[in-house]
Amino acid sequence: MNKKLYFGTNLKMYKTISDTLDYLSKLANLTKDISRDSLELFVIPSYTSLVKASEIVDQNLIKLGAQNMNWEDQGQFTGEISPIMLKELNLDLVMIGHSERRHVFRESDIEENKKVLAALSHGFTVLLCIGETLEEKKFGVSEEVLRRQLKIGLHDIPVARFHQLWIAYEPVWAIGVNGIPATSEYAESMHRLIKECLSELFGEEAKQIPVLYGGSVNPENAEDLIVQPSIDGLFTGRSAWQAEDFNLLIRGSLLAYQNRISKADACK
Length: 268
Fold this sequence. Notes:
By secondary structure, the chain is of the alpha/beta class. The protein has a single domain (about 5-265), classed as Aldolase class I (TIM Barrel). The protein has helices spanning about 15-30, 45-55, 85, 100-105, 110-120, 135-140, 140-155, 185-200, 220-225, 245-265; strands spanning about 5-10, 40-45, 65, 95, 125-130, 165-170, 210-215, 235. Strands 1-2-3-4-5-6-7-8 form an eight-stranded parallel β-barrel, surrounded by four helices. The mean pLDDT is about 95.
């Protein structure tokens, strides 16, 4: 069965405002012929770029998101950004719990939960990032870590809000310049676990929650990953930071997925 596939990237602390606008314009133009019925494309740039980006980007083509958000609407939180401030930019998407927020800035699962609840209450779509470290993987507790991050991060969320959730599975050991790409088989097994946990939390309808894989996604592994039954999209890092490269990765992945569907239908 055909499903919408999700492709996105987080620009982290890269690209100036002008770089970001140029990138977004190129990406929108390169991918505009791809039906958005089959593709959800999103980019999460720096805060400084969001004002200009929200003015020039057709968010029917590229959904824009914020890299983080405080759980309070206002207050004495120097350096923080509130949901009210993001709402002014007509954003739909907020990323929460990226591994760098968890491991560099020491955010806890409980803090992520407060942010998720706040974001959902303001009508945002939440991209909750989860993933185990290499040490946790070596100790054989990857499944427990993912379940904990999901159960705490999504604690007390009304079932009616689950349609505002996206999940990104990013094993910490697979991210960054020195990341070790997960095999498609390993990624698929973790995605199955995540979907099982979501069903436990929200019931069978939780199957509608997209679960994306991120972690050293590149042109060599993207097509193997996207055809896995439990992987709904790819959250791509540096391989997506040139619009032309990202366009090619998206198109190759969509074609690989369509070929798998065609073969499955032919075998029926």
